[in-house]
Amino acid sequence: MAKGRRSDYVPRAPQPAGGLQPGMLEKIKKMQEEMAATQAALETELINVTAAGGAITIVITGHQRVQSIKIDPALIDPNDVGMLEDTLVAAINEAIVASQEHSARRLEAVTGNIQIPGLF
User: Fold this and answer.
1) How much is the pLDDT for 12?
2) What is the structure's pLDDT at 109?
3) How far apart are CA 61 and CA 45, in angstroms?
4) What pLDDT shows up at residue 5?
5) Integer CA distances (angstroms), 118 to 6, 61, 94, in order
6) What is the residue range of 95's domain?
7) 38, 51, 75, 118: which one has the fewest Cβ atoms less than 10 Å from its Cβ?
8) Residue 57 included in any domain
9) Where do the H-state alpha helices sit in the chain?
10) SS3 for 14?
11) Does 7 fall in a domain?
12) What is the largest CA-CA distance in the chain?
């Protein structure tokens, strides 16, 4: 017997740091795996956004990468390039917001909208 130990000493499994409940580490690991899979899927998920009364269509991924832009030729006025530029900026920003909202909904489905500091 080791010096200084009681004869009835029974070693216990180490307890998780921070007082986590039993099984919580497994749940967190599973959620992290699901998050990684969802993030990978978002890279290829496409969101179609129409703007300017349907004159502009933008296809964007769940990772906010613009895949294509279609512009109705009637919107193109060589004498008013500034209007087209402004409309295009607004349409792209609208597409980015739509992509971010789509991604947030997909990720909330995995996390149940829990907030874990430092995890996300």
Assistant:
1) 72
2) 86
3) 5
4) 62
5) 41, 25, 29
6) 41-111
7) 118
8) yes
9) 24-42, 81-111
10) coil
11) no
12) 94
Of 4, 25, 5, 6, nearest to 14 by C-alpha is 25
Number of domains in the chain: 1
CATH of the domain at 45: 3.30.1310.10
d(CA 12, CA 87): 66
Tokens of 74: 């009637």
10, part of any domain: no
- Identify the pLDDT of residue 110: 83
Residue 3: inside a domain, yes or no? no
Q: Is 96 left (phi over 0), alpha (psi -120 to 50) or beta?
A: alpha
pTM as predicted:
0.69
Supply the pLDDT for residue 107. Answer: 87
Mean pLDDT by groups of 10 residues along the chain of 120 residues: 66 62 80 89 94 95 95 94 95 96 89 62
